[in-house]
Amino acid sequence: MSEIRERIITIALSYVGQLEKYDNIGWKDSNFQLKMEGIGWYDGAAWCGFFQKLVWTEAYTTGNQIVLPSSQAIESAWADAKTIPSSYPKDEEKNAIKLYKDKKLGGWAPVTKDQKSLGNVKPGDLVVFASGHGEILIQTYKTQGKITSFDSVGGNSGEKVSYNKNLKLEGNKWYPAIKGFAQVIIPN
Q1: What is the dihedral angle through the alpha carbons of 172, 117, 132, 168, rounded to the nearest 10 degrees?
Q2: Could you tell me the end-to-end alpha-carbon distance of the chain, in angstroms, rounded to an integer?
Q3: Measured in whole angstroms, how far is the alpha carbon of residue 167 from the centre of its chain?
Q4: Using CA atoms, how far apart are residues 117 and 182, in angstroms rounded to an integer?
């Protein structure tokens, strides 16, 4: 697994359990609150996309209390990678498609029945649900080369940052179907 993917996963996992006060008005941990405000979150805003943005920002640049600052090579990819995460995850599809079209970097992998476009989906990618919710992909489970389920870490999927196990591409009674995955930009 690439270093940037490992950084994204480690940072996402380090925030599991961060509790919000209630109804998108902030967090019990004042340091986490400051980080989220620094990334653009504001009082009352749904925060799943801001959480994705925080994780990718720290992974490509400063690190956090668990992960050291990135290497020059990883940070050099941030100029392009930062165009993908969005405070509104539905925008990640057009952001990823534009970056791929303009620079042949990353990509958008839409979920289709045949899963043709999901071959390059890997941990660290951004998961975009049909509802507009977003999370960080942690692990995929496959049968005969096709993704049967996955684990992710997401903010605003309840009142905390949660590790969500065994989610299905087609959704279930708690989660909507997956629209697609915005792929990590790997440094040269």
Answers
A1: 10
A2: 15
A3: 15
A4: 12
Tell me the HSE value of 113 on the side-chain side, using a 13 A CA sphere. 0
Burial of 49 (0-12, 13-18, 19+ CB in 10 A): buried
Tell me if 164 sits within 8 A of 175, measured CB to CB.
yes
CB atoms closer than 10 angstroms to residue 115: 16
Question: In tens digits, what is the pLDDT along the chain, a chain of 188 residues?
Answer: 999 999 999 999 999 999 999 899 999 999 999 999 999 999 999 999 999 999 999 999 999 999 999 999 999 999 999 999 999 999 999 999 999 999 999 999 999 989 988 988 999 999 999 999 999 999 999 999 899 999 999 999 889 999 999 999 999 878 889 999 999 999 87
Q: Report the C-alpha gap between 182 and 136 in whole angstroms.
A: 10
Structure tokens at 29: 């941990």
Listed in sequence order, the residues at least 6 apart from 70 whose beta carbon sits closer than 8 Å to its beta carbon are: 4, 7, 59, 60, 61, 62, 63, 78
Taking the mean position of all CA atoms in its chain, how far away is CA 72? 22
Q: What is the pTM of this model?
A: 0.95
Q: Strands, E, within the chain: which ranges?
A: 108-110, 126-129, 134-143, 146-154, 162-167, 178-182
Q: Between β-strands 108-110 and 126-129, what pairing exists: parallel, antiparallel or unpaired?
A: unpaired
